[in-house]
TrEMBL record:
Lineage: Bacteria, Bacillati, Bacillota, Clostridia, Lachnospirales
Organism: Fusicatenibacter faecihominis
Protein's name according to its UniProt entry: Helix-turn-helix domain-containing protein
Transposase putative helix-turn-helix domain segment(s): 2-20
Length: 20
């Protein structure tokens, strides 16, 4: 499970939801 951190917190939250 890899979580990518983006400059935009909103984007990072979307990535987390997509992965999780």
């Amino acid at each position: 499970m890899k979580i990518r951190i983006y400059p935009d917190k909103e984007q990072s939250v979307q990535i987390e939801k997509t992965i999780g």
